Amino acid sequence: MSGRWVIETEGLRKVFGDRVAVADLTLQVAEGEVFGFLGPNGAGKTTAVKMLLGLVHPTAGTGRVLGRPLGDRWARREIGFLPEGFAFHDWLTAEELLWFHGRLAGMASSDLRRRIPGLLEQVGLGADARRPIRTFSKGMRQRLGLAQAFLHDPRLVFLDEPTSGLDPAGRILVRDFLRARRAEGVTIFLNSHLLSEVERVCDRVAFLRAGRVVETLDLRAEASVTVRVELERIPPGVRAGLSAWGEILAQGDRSFTLRLAPGRRLADLARWLVSQGADLEALIPQALSLEDLFLRIVGMEMG
Fold first, then answer.
1. Which of 97, 169, 231, 291 is the most buried (most CB within 10 A)?
2. Which whole-number Å values give the CA distances from 116 to 112, 178, 221, in the listed order?
3. Where do the domains of the chain lie, and which CATH numbers do they carry?
């Protein structure tokens, strides 16, 4: 395993009876990045995360998390987890709940007294530390769950739908919180259906379809390689030769959107178009939204 990979898997597979839940989980997650894990309902995301956490044993394949085999007890001490649809003891206060989870994680009382107030402030619950959880809204519970996942200073955190139930202000707060944790070097593995939030916070994303990772994209590089070209007319030579420049994502009578192949430059594309007799009106670099990329890679599958 490379020293820079916090998660590395090769051909992880999980079969329940005659049902293949995960066919091939092959991916690498780098230290200190926010990694998005995307796919339609039923694609195998939950089972994949459970294998990475050591909660489900794979049928085949290999994997390491934090440099150790899947399910290793020492690695799990450095992992935080916020599952979807979690339920807390609602008779406890926010402060009591974090104290309880901190002690379960082996934290010293002195560390908890220092860490809990600041962490509740960061998730917008500083004034609600001693309120019973049963009085919290869904969004407040979600932010408390986020504080629980990061309480013990984990190196790696798995988040399943962390912005579920949050209003726009709450989503901004969580987004800023995650960026701050990334700046501290924490690796975050994020599963969410809110693609606009994933797009704002993730460095890279993997797309899972039918239990198999079909593509991994670096979102930091995506904006610079997609271009919309507008022409007065498109000569036949241009249409015939475009495939050599990259993938055509959309095409009209006098325009097309092209995802440039690696090594291709916009300036070279402009010179080639002119050499083919095209009357170039505009060449506009664009960024496809993550929703566009999701539909192109995964399609319209519904769970």
1. 97
2. 6, 17, 37
3. 5-219 (3.40.50.300), 221-297 (3.30.70)
